[in-house]
Design brief:
By secondary structure, the protein is of the alpha+beta class. It has one helix spanning 11-64, and strands spanning 68-71, 77-78, 81-84, 93-98, 101-106, 109-112, 119-127, 136-147, 153-164, 182-183, 189-191, 194-195, 198-199, 202-204. 26% of the residues lie in helices and 34% in strands. A hairpin with a 5-residue loop joins strand 10 and strand 11 (189-191).
């Protein structure tokens, strides 16, 4: 007949197990928290960088294809960049910030190109053109993203680049002779798209102050 007697766990063994388990848990939990925070930070850095790279790419496409920098004037700076384009359906092209997002307006069609999980600020446009026929522009802007960790932090990164417009001694846009786009006294950016040979009036609540 087989013996069914089994040795039980003593109180001392149980206490030792609890102490060892507590020590292991005390070492693992901080490590897991640190690892989790590192992953969140890396994801946040990636999101900020991805937005910045994409915005710069779009800026490059818009600016390089432009014929003239309308606003700001040569040597000037501003918070909105207005470009003269050859095709009526994209002329003028307006680049600015509204409610923490990058906004691009082509003629009267508006598009937001930054994602809602980041905040864009401090956009400064500079007209670095050497002359009316040698046009260039630079743009600086900041992208930030708040990260909720044990201690909340904010990832902030500044992006800057300069683009040279394609030379064009025979501009095709702006033939209507509409007024140059500008910020009004109420900080509303106003421009006058040409439609069917006539100058209209469009406005956008873009950031007109640094």
């Amino acid at each position: 007949m087989l013996s069914t007697n089994r040795r039980g766990v003593t109180l001392i063994e149980l206490l030792i197990f609890i102490v060892v388990f507590g020590l292991v848990a005390g070492l693992l939990v901080p490590f897991m928290v640190f690892t989790g925070e590192s992953m969140v930070r890396q994801q946040s850095d990636f999101t900020v960088q991805r937005n910045g790279d994409y915005v710069l790419q779009v800026f490059g496409q818009q600016i390089k294809d432009a014929e003239r920098v309308l606003t700001p004037s040569i040597g000037g700076t501003g918070t909105v960049l207005a470009l003269q384009r050859s095709a009526d359906d994209v002329n003028p092209t307006i680049i600015g910030v509204r409610d923490g997002q990058i906004v691009i307006v082509n003629h009267t069609t508006e598009k937001i190109i930054s994602t809602p999980d980041v905040i864009v600020s401090k956009l400064i446009a500079r007209n670095t053109s050497a002359s009316a026929t040698r046009q260039s522009a630079s743009i600086t802007f900041t992208i930030s993203r708040r990260v909720q960790l044990l201690e909340s932090t904010t990832d902030v990164r500044t992006f800057q680049t300069t683009f040279t417009l394609f030379p064009n001694d025979d501009p095709q846009g702006g033939l209507c002779g509409c007024a140059v786009p500008a910020c009004t006294t109420t900080d509303t950016f106003t421009w006058h798209p040409c439609t069917s040979g006539a100058c209209g009036t469009s406005t956008a609540a873009l950031t007109c102050k640094p």
